[in-house]
Write the structure tokens for this entry.
Amino acid sequence: MFGEFDTQIVVKSLPFLWQGLQLSLLLTGLGILGGVAAGTLLALMRLSSFKVFSLFSATYVNLIRSVPLILVIFWFYFLVPLAIGRPVGSFYSALIAFIIFEAAYYSEIIRAGIQSVARGQVWAGQATGLGYWQIQRYIVLPQAFRNMVPILLTQAIILFQDTSLVFVVSLRDFMTASAIVAQKEGRLVEMYTFAAAVYFVICFAGSMLVKRLSKEIAR
Amino acid sequence: MITIDHISKWYGKFQVLADCSTGIERGEVVVVCGPSGSGKSTLIKCVNGLEPVQEGAIRVNDVAVTDAGTNMARLRSQIGMVFQHFELYPHMSVLNNICLAQEKVLNRSREEARAKARSLLQRIDLSDQADKYPGQLSGGQQQRVAIARALAMDPIAMLFDEPTSALDPEMINEVLDVMVELATEGMTMMVVTHEMGFARKVADRVIFMDEGRIVEDAPTEEFFNTPRSDRAQAFLAKILQH
Ligand SMILES: Nc1ncnc2c1ncn2[C@@H]1O[C@H](COP(=O)(O)OP(=O)(O)OP(=O)(O)O)[C@@H](O)[C@H]1O
Ligand SMILES: [Mg+2]
């Protein structure tokens, strides 16, 4: 096993690994989109003056944040089918779990972003007769998101790494694909080194981007 | 046109406004002054319902601002408001700042809104800044744009909350000039300011507030020449020294 470092095996399994990486990226992308959409709604509810909304949002966020992600994935894969009487499917159960989980984290980030927008901006919108949703859409959220881009991206990098958990519902993400090849070919060193390198490159590039954007925004 | 009828307001236990009553006629210019924390901003925000009141009533053109059933968006679109810190939308160009509410509230077409914005920019001498962002303008220019944004809605009255107090001294006049012009054109205005030169020049009346009360409400000349209350006298003495 610690003999020759066989690069050939990596090259040979690239198409298979690429499929895994695509799944990881797809889950990350859709997870972010869904998570940001749901998170925005939760953040607005949390900041709402209607007690029911803010209470619901606070409860949701605290609940989700106190369970591990893998539990949410299991929950959707095993328990929800019991409740609705038919299987959800690995991909959708994983995706829904990610969205539900990420929404809780994103909502806290977005809430802070919304609160970072000056109170006077809302007054200015109200004073010209704009309604609540118009003010959010045209005035508050664009400014909030601009301030939040780096931290949202940081969260996305974490989500990308977390997609490796989907092996528990037998989905083949990049990590799982690497592990399969490693086991089958008995090339643990090569495959896990390569997997680590790929994660490193993607996440490092991501955090460099975060740094640049932060600087840009601070200007 | 604007009637403020025995309003009182509390923040928790703290009373910000205590039994304030006054009125503003069509075309009248009223200056509100008083020491910091006396409730001037709060009073002016109550007029367009940005702050609720707990007692009393406010009517604008016989529409009750303080009624639950009032269409606030419609009412607010008819009253322009200018803030101490401009509150331009930093992520939008000057032109879009002036167009947003025209399009979304008054449902004007993009062309119509732009045409209106351009003619207002011309009027305040900022035609060449239309495509810049607020952050690229000086404070005085930003405040003029904020005035244009309010005027774009064709308001029946304008509220100003210390429009020049965040400005460098050399920029105060360019903003006051626009306001004087508005006043002489007959705009109904309620202006919180400590610019007594402006008050003397265009105000019909001056309201002096202290600790949430309207202590003095008098025609301009009378206010400056024979202020009745000690507090107004002391305030004037202090402010006119500068
Ligand atoms: N949201 C709020 N919650 C609690 N207290 C407030 C709030 N807004 C204002 N106040 C208090 O109400 C009082 C009046 O405030 P206001 O802003 O109306 O005063 P002002 O006359 O405009 O003062 P300044 O000249 O400093 O602008 C102040 O003591 C202020 O601390
Ligand atoms: Mg004030």
User: Anything to note?
Assistant: Residues B 11, 14, 16, 34, 36-42 surround adenosine-5'-triphosphate (ligand 1) (CB under 6 Å). Chain A touches chain B through 18 residues (CB under 8 Å). Residues 2-218 of chain A form a domain with the MetI-like fold fold (CATH 1.10.3720.10). Chain A has a mean pLDDT of 90.
